[in-house]
Write a structure and sequence with these properties.
The protein has 352 residues and is of the alpha+beta class. 34% of the residues lie in helices and 26% in strands.
Length: 352
């Protein structure tokens, strides 16, 4: 009996232990399955994230590549377009220039092309270059064959280099006094036997190389010779008493009793009392030693006396070479009542 009770108790304990073992195993399986599920989920999430990142990166790279390609295409296309436009414009301009050149008259002589440029065609059908005298006018043609306009140029004349100015029409300007600055320094060269005066302006350290203007004059007659030498001049007066009851305008002292002044007048201060005979002799020896001039020239010397560094009087000859020709004299002025006046006298306009 006791044996049966013990056996029953043993079987019961064994059953209970087996039951607990199954529960534990089941619980372990549930925990393992959960862990496996979590691992699987994590792996899936990781793979999905990695794939999404790769896809995004790949797409971004593709888009960037497409954009770069499009931009590059646009830039290249733009540059090519600009280059083509520039090349076309250059070609068109060259063509137009060629056409104008072909239209230029290459017969011997002075011409002006469609652009208004001045040139001189030589007998060989080519444009002249350098300094050239055409009739009474003087020009300087550049290396391209066209005349200099509104420019200064150093030119050698008669073996001496001078600084000359060529105006708006290409012609050399023969009186550049209006182009000189207020503080310009000057030198006067009087060529007695040529009855002519040259005014030069100082060109920095190059000396007096700018021919400013030329003047016609009347120096002293034989026996009343004008002095020679180099002097510093000074003003005397706008009217001055001369020899033999005669008078002159704008008198400037050279040395001693020798003066620059206008042609003689018979009445002091009277602009209409000009000596007809004395005026007609201008350009030849006629005075008693002074240098007679047109009123405008005597006035210029008078007004610039302080800026004239030196005045040289030399005998020279009628053939002495100068960078400017001896000017001709205007016809004497005459009033209706028979009085005479110098046509260059600025005071006349105020009195007529």
């Amino acid at each position: 009996m006791n044996y049966i009770k013990r056996l029953t108790a043993f079987v019961l304990c064994l059953a209970i232990s087996f039951s607990f073992a199954n529960v534990k195993a089941s619980a372990g399986n549930v925990s393992g399955d959960a862990a496996s599920a979590n691992a699987t989920s994590s792996s899936a999430s990781s793979n999905a994230s990695e794939n999404a990142s790769k896809d995004a990166s790949s797409n971004a790279s593709k888009d960037a590549s497409k954009n770069a390609e499009a931009t590059t295409t646009e830039i290249v296309s733009g540059d090519a377009s600009k280059d083509a436009t520039t090349e076309a414009a250059t070609t068109e301009k060259a063509k137009a220039t060629t056409e104008k050149t072909l239209l230029e008259d290459m017969s011997i002589g002075l011409h002006k092309n469609a652009d208004g440029k001045i040139y001189y065609a030589n007998k060989n059908g080519k444009k002249a270059t350098g300094y050239k005298k055409v009739g009474k006018a003087e020009y300087f043609f550049g290396s391209d064959g066209y005349a200099l306009v509104k420019k200064w140029k150093y030119v050698k004349l008669n073996g001496t280099k001078y600084k000359l100015y060529f105006g708006a029409n290409g012609k050399r300007v023969l009186d550049v006094s209006n182009l000189m600055k207020k503080n310009t320094r000057y030198a006067i060269d009087v060529i007695l036997n040529k009855c002519m005066i040259m005014i030069y302006a100082k060109d920095g350290n190059k000396g007096y190389t700018i021919p400013v203007k030329a003047m016609t004059c009347s120096p002293g007659l034989p026996g009343h010779d004008t002095i020679t030498g180099t002097y510093k001049i000074r003003k005397v007066g706008t009217w001055h008493t001369l020899f033999y009851n005669s008078y002159g305008q704008y008198a400037t002292n050279i040395h001693g009793n020798f003066l620059f002044h206008s042609v003689c007048y018979t009445k002091y201060g009277d602009h209409y009392s000009l000596s007809k005979k004395a005026y007609s002799q201008l350009g030849q020896k006629a005075s008693h030693g002074c240098i007679r001039l047109l009123v405008k020239d005597a006035k210029w010397i008078y007004e610039h006396a302080a800026n004239i560094d030196k005045t040289t009087l030399r005998k020279g000859s009628k053939n002495t070479k100068t960078p400017l020709a001896k000017p001709t004299t205007k016809k004497i002025g005459k009033t209706l009542d028979g009085r005479y006046y110098d046509p260059t006298d600025p005071k006349i306009k105020q009195q007529v």
